[in-house]
Amino acid sequence: MDIFVKQGGIVEQAVDLIVVNLFQGVTAPAGATGAVDKAMGGAISAIIAAGDFVGKFGETALLYTRGAIPAPRVLVVGLGEPAKLGAHVVRAAAATAARKARDLGAKTFATIVHGAGIGGLDAAIAAGVLVEGTRLGLYRFEGYRSKPPKDWRPSPETMFIVEMAADRLSAIAAGVARGEAIAAGVMLARDLVNTPANLMTPTTVAERAEALARATSLHFEALGRAECKALGMGIFMAVAEESEQEPKLIILGHNAERADLPTLVLVGKGVTFDSGGISIKPGEEMWRMKGDMAGAAAVIGALGIAARLNLPLRVIGLAPCAENLPGGRAQKPGDVFRGMNGKTMEVISTDAEGRMLLADALAYATRYNPAAVVDIATLTGAQAVALGPQAAAVFANNDEIAAKLLAAADASGDRLWRLPLFDEYADAIKSQVADVKNSGGRTSGIGSSAKFIEHFTEGYPWAHIDMASMAMSDEDRPAQPKGATGYGVRLFTAFLEAWTK
Ligand code: BES
Ligand code: MN
Ligand code: ZN
Prior knowledge:
nine-stranded mixed β-sheet, 14 helices, binds zinc ion
């Protein structure tokens, strides 16, 4: 679908559907919605007066114009209470409208920029989230069916963003470009996570990252088994040992050569399939573990955006990728491995593999002399139990990073909740034979996993995000259809932008 910005009145648009909005509690619509109402002889006022539509957040009303204006249909989307208006409202309203346009079979539709008129949001910001919501709402993973499902309609071909005020058009166009960049990053992450593990191996992830790098002029490198072994990454390599699939440490860099700029390193867990290994998982829900590379996907998506927005930072993305399988060469509980930073680790569970990838990637991050390092991983079932599908957990050894991440979570809608790094959590991962063990058992499962990872950081400001509950959604939300969410991409974008201010 193409998106164009156009000057004019929404009433005059000769498209299959026009989209306007209403705040909750408004009885006499003003602005663009008021103009449509007037042209239709008060049809919108009438459905409000009848009590059939109140403008609640997420509510929609469809009206047929029967020749009163060029477009045959009007969709009114509710924006909820004016006091609660924000980017997330506009994003969701745009997603709802776009999906409705698709359900109606509209080839062309036109929308106003929700929230930028009476709502008072900055026009560029509102236009940006309008595009994000539209693209993310229409996102569908095509899959591998021989025929598309019967109820799938094709996406509209064209959306016009219509604005009356000429002096706002350049801000809106800038917002659209930003929204396109962000949506592309989120959709890339969703595609990587939705693709099954037989088709999304560490090598495939690297190929996708390389294609992104070519399209956005990011620096790209991928270290294979031999190179990682030569670097001494014995802990990362232990996970990959049994798999026929070559592990990859994917390295993406925005402004990679600019050591003069503040350097942020993002590290994402890329387990392309997590069977648990010798400590094998129960079979029933194991298929979900094709999504165990969602941290890597978030990092790759965010690097693409950093490049497209040309952020004035040096941003390095590290995505250690491997497949965790049982077999004759596989690591076993009780085995001991040495990591790149010289520390040794005892395996308690081969299913605690994500932290093993992160351990060596975090040691590798040191070479960039980072101002901050943030890792993100689908790390523990305990996180999902603690917070559910509402928020990821964040741990930090530094309050400034924690504050920036929490603010980015608010701004992006990718929610976070901070948990403590109490010293006592480390007691559970003391080993009799090595510097540390990879699991502390069932008690304080998230806290001890964060302490394990902290063990492999090298004094730089650091935060760890456990997004186990956020990678895939069983629920259909407006800007986030069921399946892979792309969680973390917008969070990182907002975090990086905060760093530039
Ligand atoms: N990838 C899983 C965590 C996970 C669980 C992600 C559910 C998404 C949904 C991780 O590698 C894992 O297996 N963690 C274990 C750690 C334990 C063995 C210490 C867990 O949480 O049970
Ligand atoms: Mn596991
Ligand atoms: Zn895992």
